[in-house]
């Protein structure tokens, strides 16, 4: 049996930009991607702590060290600069493997979106 579990999580990061006139996605600082074991084009779920919105999109790699968290396209309607969000990805794995799997979880500084 396979189950879906949290693989990666960026907990409480601040939206820096919202670009409605873009194809769609979320741009994330490459330092955060590396720390959270995330890759470009990976599907992510996003929770907005400010307004309760929950949605899915995919990742675009942002400039390393920039602190960028930019919602693009329709996602720009779900969060505004200054909102605090949580970004999560999930993976399918065998039930027994899932019992011992440890997700990558990062807690960046919400003022700068840099790793603490």
TrEMBL record:
Binds 1 pyruvoyl group covalently per subunit. It is an enzyme of class 4 (lyase). This is Aspartate 1-decarboxylase. Is synthesized initially as an inactive proenzyme, which is activated by self-cleavage at a specific serine bond to produce a beta-subunit with a hydroxyl group at its C-terminus and an alpha-subunit with a pyruvoyl group at its N-terminus. It comes from the Bacteria. It is found in: Cytoplasm. Substrate binds at residues 57, 73-75. Belongs to the PanD family. Pathway: Cofactor biosynthesis; (R)-pantothenate biosynthesis; beta-alanine from L-aspartate: step 1/1.
